[in-house]
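Side project, low priority. Logging it here so it doesn't get lost.
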Amino acid sequence: MKNKLLDNKALGKKLKLECLRLLSDGSGIGYMNGIATFVSGILPGETGEVEVYDAKKKWQRARLLSIINRSPERIDAPCSVFEGCGGCQLQHTTYDETLIWKQHWVEDALSRIGKINVEVKPVIGMTNPWRYRNKARLHREPTGKLGYYKEKSKDLVHFSDCLLLSERMNRWIRLTEEFFADGFEEIHTLTFRENTRGEGLLLLEGPPTKVLSAVDNREFFEELFKEGVRSVWGTDSEGDLALVWGEEAFSQSIRDMIFDVSPLSFFQVNPLQTDVLYSHVLAGAALTGDEIVWDLYSGIGTLSVALALKARKVTGIEENPYAVEDAIQNAVNNNAVGHVEFLKGKVESRMMKLDEQPDVVVLDPPRTGMHPIVVQRLLELKPQRIIYVSCDPGTLARDLGVLTQGGYGVASVQPVDMFPWTQHVECVVELYLS
């Protein structure tokens, strides 16, 4: 009870705080009487007036009220909803500075969590770090307005122009918003995709009768078609896909290859940086044409197909059934049939049933990292090289810690900025059997 009273006394306190560094969620940290204080929006080297709104015995959170000493790296965020949205955490500092901090975050995770001391290469950034996203998942207010959920809440943030999306996709969003302003209340989520040719796909989520009835307004869909949207999809109560208007096929281009992408399949959101990322994966794999390769968490087969063009055989394992169907077709599209096969199911289950010995394993797991069974199986098989693609430095460090204790060395850690202005950073890690 005493600690609780002490904590409550801190609430609402206004303090002057010096920020020492940025944490991996983009917030700044400083110390007040030995208590770690977390503040969003403040930069290293700045002193700000802050107000405590959450207090515990050893840490507290505060909101930034004003900047007293301004960092030379601070810039005015160009996005009008930056402070309210939460989708981007770093628009208030220079782009070069964001790359430096992302490198620090990877270094910190590897040393602190994985107990690995290894050189982390500078983050590969973008020449123009705007308008890079090829996908937007938006939610709908009863009024018909579309927006993102505010970070850690269900509050909707409406925007007139998201600077991470192309101007074309922003137009699609505005047109769709106008159409759905009247009626179709049960359509609650809309996902837009755009390929490298400027063609679009729209996925509507809601009761199938509501989705299908939207097709009656052909004038709206024809207007979308003129703007580049080629197909509109819906999902039924079982989550199955149904084409409600337009063309069934939707494809993306990566490294001179064509990949079919279903509405519910994963595809990297930044095509320019995906090309960079895959170049490093292929270089790390160092294939000569005679290797047996496993591609774990293979998605729609983008890496599997690229690897198959340089390997004796590639086996991809993927849980998402839509992605596996895409992957099989993508092998046909890119003349990789005979060099690649795809297995549907959880990686930790399907890899246990394979009796071949892989020379190289490439893996790109979700943010949660590898299942412990997968890590253990890799240590049993001991492939000569492992190429680990990660979107989360924390789970990457955890998994690498186990692999290095099991006999692997880290040859290279190359971060790639797939998500400019956000807290996220992708890494390609090359491991070798030592």
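Brief comment: The longest strand covers residues 59-69.
Revisit when time allows.
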